[in-house]
Predict the 3D structure of the following.
Amino acid sequence: MKIIKILVVIVALFLFSCGGGGGGSSSVTPISVSNVNFSTDSGTNVISESNPPRSVVFSFNVDTQAPSYSVDLYLSRNNSVDNNTDVYRFYSTNLTNRRGATEIVLDNESVGFDNLMNYYGGKFYVKVRVSTSSSSAWAVSDEPLILKKLWTFAVYMDADNSLNGDDNTNILEMESIGSSKDVNVVVEDDNYTSAYRYFIKKCDVDELESLGEPDMASVATLEDFGRWIKDNFPADHYFIVIWDHGLGFESTKSLNRDLLLDETNNDIMSVPAFASTMDNISYILGKKIDILGIDACLMNMVEVAYQIRNSTNVLVGSENSEPDFGWPYHRILKYLVDNPKSQLQQISSEVVKDYVNFVNLVENNSSLTLSFCSSVKNFRNPLVKPTQSAIDLLKIDNLTASVNELAKSLLKNWNNRIIVTTVNSVLDNVQRFKVSDDDYSYADLGDLVKLIYQNDNMTSDIKQAALSVLDNLTNTVIANGYSGFDNGTVNGLTIWLPNDRTIFDNNISHYEQLDFAENTKWDEFLDNLTQ
């Protein structure tokens, strides 16, 4: 009898919960959402910050018997309905007596549209969540929605060498500013063990992708970085920074200071290969790189600037070595985020000023401690004098042509013993920068031609050619900053000027791979000079 009573109770409870026997209704109303799409009046999936559409239409199908439900629209980096952990809600509403095909229209006067445009940018999928008090359902768009900003500030950080750790400091500096409605800040960072791609937000970082352990000195890796920028963070303007050790054109694995030195893969990248990759990235972007920053030592040479002339509008870098802490990204991004509509010349000039001022600040304080969000970083005495310049690469052809004329004039007069003696005396006094322990073969181009022009022993054609170089250099350098050098000795670009035959012989085959050597007589002049 006990068993029968228990069964009767169970059956009764089941009927009651299902609404049986009493004519009640279910407490859970099924709901589903599907076919998520969006469209703009411009007919593209790209919403541009500089030219926003008048409206965006989000459409989807809802299947439910519920008389009313809520709708939330989200942006997500992933397109899986099973992964809704990284969603950002930009619009929410309640709908009554609506089912089947449904549309939500956001015009550019709506709060939802403003939220959409002010999110931190890039490629997203649109996710829709429909909910009643008892159930909910998700669906995601097949196509991505692209939020195109005015700027993408992208840093290619190769810390797979002795700079490992300094990358973290610079990323913290970037975090202190973060991306904005006008500026994407993104990073590809490789240390000794692994590489990641990040989207930098205010006091936060989104890890977007793990890359394993790539060869950062590989042309394919760098080119893929450019493709990733274009596909995921398109912008009207691109500021790309190459972050690493640098050594001008004298690349060598024996020194721990080279352009894109990847120690894990025992690889480096030559200047011609770098320039060719920048050409490919420019093609991928569909335009020239607006500003190319090289946060590395000794890279602002006329030879390097000429090599990348076809891919880039403005080059920013240093004639001299740089401290390990590199650029002050917190200051540079502060200006860009606050002034995204500034001209390239103004933005690049601010980089020059911010870098020199910050290095001086650290030097004057011996050891400087700064707080970035919740982290504190100490900056050691840089032990190097700062130089930084911004170069207008639209004018680098004229400068190179004038250097060629100077080389030809010097060669024409090289049988004159007075000229040879005078040139050698100039070489002893020109401002030089240390390449390695016994190598000071990078000379300031402006100081060199000033000394030639001012020397009364020079022929009139040599003096006139030197003056032409100086005029073109002045027109090519947008901004020039330095500290700790005599006034006028640092002018924005160096040139290879070895006065030692061994240095010449060790590097001439590599130098001859440069466009500058191919298109000028400078290497022939150096051959005579070092005899």
